[in-house]
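Hey Z.,

So I finally got round to the phosphoenolpyruvate thing we talked about over coffee. Here's the setup:
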Amino acid sequence: MGKKIVVANLKMSMNTSDINIYLKSIKNLNNKNVVICPTSIYIPYFLKQHFYVGIQNVYKEDLGAYTGEVSPLQAYTMGVRYVILGHSERRNYFKETNELINEKIKACLKNNLKVILCIGESKEEKDLLKTKRVLKKQLVTCLDGIDIKNVIIAYEPIWAIGTKVTPTNLEIGDTISFIKDVVYELKSDAIKVLYGGSVNEKNIKELNTISNVDGFLVGGASTDFNKFKVIIEEVTE
Ligand code: PEP
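And the result:
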């Protein structure tokens, strides 16, 4: 399986004084199984250290008149090595479709970025027993025409993000098996699957016992380095 990875999604959560404090707290972080994804304007502060840096979103073109966007080419040449795509907040607030996400994945892989593709069902879809159908559709469309060698999936049930509620270990394990099976059917190749959604310093020990999980994507708890450190140590050491 290889080493598990831990990804921090810092979202748009820190002002400049918060980020200065955070940067001091991660000064001694020396772990290549950790990927930190800051708000993009702060990325230069995180580069050239002993962990990987990711970006939370990019556009699908390399260069051009796309005001406000950042490209995979720009990110890679700055030193960014990972990208989060398809996060439910991007799908929900910015109306990103599976088709657009597919184009973005292609653009990122062309520029050597490793892709962390987020998929997950809403509470309503879960209650209507549509989880597997929704996940399969996301996988089929987002991965269409894609070589998955540099793609990792993050399974993030939308109802678990920022809610302090997580599925049971059994549910997570079953869903991850389903995702791995679907990808194997599509690509005849194995893929890593992370779990994300309300992972914190208290529940990580138990979540980390799920045998088929390849790591974790952490939002809220990654913005406090004391909490994030507990997660890193549990998962990668
Ligand atoms: C996320 O938004 O990717 C996430 C996992 O958030 P949280 O850990 O806060 O639920």
